[in-house]
Design goal:
With 173 residues, the chain is an all-alpha fold. The chain is built from 6 helices and no strands. The chain has helices at residues 2-40, 44-62, 72-111, 116-125, 144-156, 160-172. The relative contact order is 0.09. The model is unreliable at 8-20 and 129-137 (pLDDT under 50).
């Protein structure tokens, strides 16, 4: 009887954990759609507000580490925790990168090479935060990825002067 009770309780806890994960997934998907629509409408303040919400989800997820105990259940619980944190981190970082690149591209599309001043301001306003919680990678604080993407944009637009200016920025960093 005691074994049956334990099995039933484990199943109930598993269902509860799964439903929590589903709610977090739904919320992240809704927020992703929201920041993408905001970027499409050039509402970057709103998009950064959504990114902030995703950062809060990541922060909350990373602080909800399961208590230490031994056994298979504890290992699975910690593995689920780690997976949720990694997923929340990726959602947040991808959102921030997406919004930064959309704002930077908008600055270049609107102002051409003169938009690089605005790009520099965007980089200073939105630095990437710290080290990756789980993977221990250093996050690109100089936004090298952004300038590489902008260089691809300038190349595809066949704008040699813009390419040269972006290349100079890359070489300085």
């Amino acid at each position: 009887m005691k074994k049956i009770y334990q099995i039933v309780m484990l199943c109930a806890m598993g269902i509860a954990l799964a439903s929590c994960g589903d709610n977090a997934e739904k919320k992240s998907a809704e927020l992703e759609q929201e920041y993408r629509e905001a970027c499409e409408n050039k509402e970057f303040a709103k998009a950064y507000g959504v990114v902030s919400q995703l950062r809060d989800i990541y922060t909350k997820a990373s602080t909800q580490c399961p208590p230490e105990s031994k056994g298979k259940d504890s290992f699975e619980e910690y593995a689920n925790f780690e997976m949720r944190v990694r997923h929340a981190h990726d959602n947040y970082l991808n959102a921030e990168k997406y919004v930064v690149i959309q704002e930077a591209l908008t600055a270049l599309e609107t102002n051409g090479k003169n938009g690089l001043g605005r790009v520099a301001i965007i980089v200073k306003e939105h630095p990437m935060h710290g080290d990756c919680f789980l993977c221990e990678d250093k996050i690109d604080r100089e936004h090298r990825w952004l300038y590489d993407t902008l260089l691809e944009y300038a190349t595809s637009a066949d704008d040699e002067e813009l390419q040269e200016k972006i290349q100079n920025i890359i070489e300085k960093n």
